[in-house]
Design brief:
By secondary structure, this protein is an all-alpha fold. It is built from seven helices and no strands. Helix 1 runs antiparallel to helix 2, helix 5 packs across helix 7 and helix 6 packs across helix 7. It starts with 7 loop residues before the first helix and ends with a helix.
Length: 173
Amino acid sequence: MEASPEHPAAGLEAIFAEMRPALVRRAAAMGAAGDAEDVVQDVWLKLGGVDAPVASPHAYLLRMVYTAVLDRRRGLRRAAVRDATWQSPANLAEDTVEPADAERRLIALQTLRAVEARLMALGDPAAAIFRRHRIEGVTQRRLAEEFGMGLSTIEKHLRRAYAVLLDLQEEQS
């Protein structure tokens, strides 16, 4: 399937759909085993930003998976360094930890209540899927299995939850 000049990503998306199992295997082989589906999903989301024809779509998609896996590794490495820094005994000394003042605690509590209200208004299963994915860290693939839904349906529910929370954030800004 060839992309039209008006919509170059359309052909690339069709090739992506055809190559998806191979892309997941590629991500898993590169060490993203448990996150391979999420890596490939990140690549899918980035395809929407492609606005020029791609000469070699198979190689392009494989390279996108490669880059996504490397980005994920770098992010995990940075998070580990950050967590180690925060957990070091020097950072936990009593004189370096300041309690949150009453105003900050109140703002945080109000924000949390507003988020909870928006998620409740969103209803299930979108709210439950969002909580399991973002708070508990359950992968989209696992959620699809648990809820008996397709991966694209899980993604739809997550997009709805993100949209609701982005609206809340814009209202509070």
